[in-house]
């Protein structure tokens, strides 16, 4: 069985080439595989959808670092685009010093797409040290915690902050995190001040936060690239954005690679057991 021998001794470089092609090609020729929207993602979308234009602000805490950017940055953009498309004011910040530049890039990119003005439609507070102190401090007076924005401007000089004092003036906190920051938001902002919280986390972390969803302490959650692609779909279907859906394209590549890996495993097992059977027959 010559085909069996060839299958058993396939050059591993060929496997690497096929995996590489499976990753790269969908980014240039997206497959647009169907995306099923889960309840937890839809809950976040519906809540932001219910906020009236120029109503209470949404606080987006971009608590992640560069190594998790491929998963969290697309959902960051999708949520910000949703807010700006509906004229919801946004307060951006981060609890992770490594996320300062990422947060700035995300909020500026999405704001520019909708012609939003800094200081009027949104503000970026940047980073302050002390996770617990910052979260609790926002519950008393956000201006006492930050004082100035990320660029050194006095918060009292920014119109967007004129009627924003504490959690009473914030409709929702969205924490996008690559670590345990969502637990801190629940423990201090939700438990003490009853602030509504939604989270976006990496896929490997998502399972840890389902108990918080079941208790209602998170109103919803975006989990990994899949959650980001679901939110992108909701934003596009609502007519809010026609920008490139990077998470959806990433899911295409991920799905193709998974199918290819499963195929290699199946073929490898067929070759192995067939070769054992052949060897047994020869004996």
Structure characterization notes:
The protein is an alpha/beta fold. It folds into two domains: 2-28 and 254-282; 39-243, Rossmann fold, CATH 3.40.50. Helices cover 54% and strands 13% of the residues. A six-stranded parallel sheet has the order 3-2-1-4-5-6, with helices on both faces. α4 links the parallel β1 (57-63) and β2. The longest helix has 37 residues, at 246-282. The radius of gyration is 23 Å and the shape is elongated.
Which CATH top level class of the largest domain fits? Alpha Beta
**CATH architectural designation of the largest domain:** 3-Layer(aba) Sandwich
Largest sheet: 6 strands, parallel
> Rg to the nearest angstrom?
23 Å
Distance from N terminus to C terminus (CA atoms, Å) equals 16 Å
Poorly predicted ranges (pLDDT <50, ≥5 residues)?
Answer: none
Strand order of the largest sheet: 3-2-1-4-5-6
The string of secondary-structure elements, in order, is: HHHEHEHEHHEHEHHEHH
Shape: elongated
Strand content: 5-15%
Which structural class do you get from the secondary structure elements?
Answer: alpha/beta
Do you know the CATH topology of the largest domain?
A: Rossmann fold
Secondary structure: helix percent: 40-55%
Number of domain units: 2
Determine the mean pLDDT. 90
Number of strand elements: 6
The number of helical segments is: 12
